[in-house]
Amino acid sequence: MTALYSSEWLQPAFNDPVLDxxxxxxGALKALAEPxxxxxxxxxxxxxxxxxxxxxxxxxxxxxxxxxxLAPRFDTPLIRANLAFHCGCPIVTEREVAxxxxxxxxxxxxxxxxxxxxxRYPDQSCTLLIQLDAxxxxxxxxxxxxxxxxxRSVSLPLPAAFWQQRSARSAFPRGLDxxxxxxxxxxxxxxxxxxxDNAEEAA
Amino acid sequence: MHHDPQIATRQRWxxxxxxxxxxxARFEAALKDADYQLIRAPEVGMSLVRGRxxxxxxxxxxxxxxxxxxxxxxxxxxTGYSYxxxxxxxxxxxxxxxxxxxxxxxxxxxxxxxxxxxxADQQAARAQAAAETATTQVEFFTLVRGED
Lengths: 203, 148
Prior knowledge:
The structure holds two protein chains of two kinds. By secondary structure, chain A is of the alpha/beta class. Chain A has six helices and ten strands. Chain A has one domain: 3-Layer(aba) Sandwich (Rossmann fold), CATH 3.40.50.11310. In chain A, helix 4 links the parallel strand 2 and strand 3. The N and C termini of chain A lie far apart (58 Å). Chain B is of the alpha+beta class. Chain B has four helices and three strands. The relative contact order of chain B is 0.16. The chains are: A alpha/beta, B alpha+beta.
C-alpha cells in the first residue's frame, strides 16, 4: 500500500476540528479525573471497526509525537490511512516504544511489553485505549482512589487476567493508565485507582 | 520539476491552481457539479518557509506565511489536495476540487478548459509586470578613477 493509493480510504473526521478535539480531550480528562464514571464522547463518527468514542479518543490524543501500537483487529488499511491522515501518528510494531496502544479484548491478558514509565518520568508511560462491546456487563468491582468519594462500583466486562496484568505493571508512580470505550461512552482507569478485593471490602 | 512526467504534470497544475486566486471562482459551477465531500474542510494555518542563500548555502528559516489547505473526495473515491497561500477558503476548496477532477478520466478536458486559460492569464500578468518593471530600470555607469 503506497501513499498514492491510500487516499481512497480517507473519510471525514471531526466536523469542527478545533472545538470537537477540545471537547473530546476535556471528556477524556474528566474520565481520568473521576475514574469509573461514564463520560460521553460523541463528536466523531465510527470508523470501520473503531467505535465513535474510540475514534474520538484517537483524534484528540494522537499526533506526530505519539507512536501508536495497533491491535491486529484494528490494523486495517482504512484505519491506518485515516489515522495517518488525521492524526499523523507513527504506527509502530514494537510495544515498548508506543506511547498509546489501541487494544481490544484479545490483548488484555498480556500487557507486559507496554512501557509503564520510569521513576523519573512516570508520565512517559503507554496509555491504553481499550475498546469493549459494553461498559456495564461485567461483574461489579469496587474502585477506590483519587477522584472517588469512598468507593465506586464499576462493572467493566474484563477478564481476571487484565487485573493481574495491571497490578503486575503497577509500581506507583509507574503504571499504566487506561480508557475503556464502547459506543460513544468512555470510562477512565488511572494508575492511582485501587481495585478492592474481597478482604479489603470487608474491612 | 520532477523526473516522473505524471508527477511533473500534477506539479504544474498544482502551481497554476495555487496562484489562481479569485480567478477560480469563474469555474465554481463546473467544479462543484459533482458529488463530493470534504475530508479536511478548508483550514487556515501557518507554514514555515525556509531558504538557502544563493540556493546552495545552509538552510535558514525565512519566516512564516499563512497557508490554507483543503482535501476533498469525489463520489468515485478520487481525492484532491490543495495548499494555497493566504486565507481564502473558497480558493482552497475550489483548487482541491480541481485537483481531484484533474486526476480522473476527464483530465484532458479539465487541462484545456481550466488550467491552460489560467496559465495563460498568469503568464500574461507576469509578462506585463516584468515589462512595467523594465521601464524603470536604471543603468549605472561608473568611471574607473584609477586608484588601484
